[in-house]
User: What shape does this take?
Amino acid sequence: MKCRACRAGAVIELPRHNSALCRDCFLAYCRNQVSRAIDEHEMLRPADRVLVAVSGGKDSLALWDLLLDLGYHVDGLYIGLGISGYSEPSAGYARAFAQSRQARLVEVDLKGHYGFDVRSGAAADHRVPCSACGLSKRHIFDRAALEGGYDAVATGHNLDDEAAVLLGNVLRWDLEYMARQRPVLPATDGFPKKVKPLVRLAERETAAYCVLRGIDYQVDECPMAAGNRHLGYKEALGLIEERSPGTKAAFYAQFLERAAGPVAAAAGTNASTSLHPCPSCGAPTTSQLCAFCRLVERAGGDPKKRIPVSAG
Ligand code: Q46
Ligand code: ZN
Assistant: This one.
């Protein structure tokens, strides 16, 4: 198998592009896909300070590496979720990467900082673990970005993630969620800008990228993910993709090009006028106290604790 670009020995096949690439051409392809996503969706400006949400998995570490290589000023933020057997090794991969690239990694440990982990927080707030986890991560990334003066939060959602979320939204015709499913969400009152620069790269491509770049990452799925709907949608799309390479990318790309605008118009804009700053943490909320501060209070922690991030 020869590289389609330079005729050297290929290391990876890309059926959706009807192509195969050698190591160097594949790494260049990954950089190019990220660069195109950033340009197409006006995600970042060259001088932006970016905070990457780092989990220790392949996507977030590949994203961090790619953004550094593209010349962005990028720091990482890792949140210790306290998931036994999973969180500690994940933190280790994040730290090792930061050290290897001499990049700045900010760490927030849920238990040490707020007094709960994903399991105990979920139990105290009568939620399922992924709901407590998602709420905590969104809150901490948002507050850290705003308090640290970052221009955007970048997350490692890849093409497979976005196509699976889209499939779930379409199956339920959930227009509100579809309207928000964009690769870039602009900063609005009290929320930082959010960008997903990996939306043009498939999951197996980010994994191959890490392997070829020598980046060690957490290979295991979070144990709490077992049996969730998102994984089922990914599997279903994987089967379709196997038979018809390119379908997944077309499904997502055509949504952005042809449907996202009309869907957003049909869903209407949710008036943000009822939002006010949470008296405890300052995050925008429609309730007396924001959902995260309620969770922290119920779990017996101190919601007023600041996140240890300052402009670096
Ligand atoms: S939400 Fe749920 Fe993930 Fe949190 S508890 Fe694990 S599976 S890590 S993206
Ligand atoms: Zn709050």
In short: The chain has one domain: 34-218+245-298. Strands lie at 12-14, 19-21, 49-54, 73-80, 105-109, 152-154, 184-185, 193-195, 276-277, 284-285. Residues 34-218+245-298 form a domain with the Rossmann fold fold (CATH 3.40.50.620).
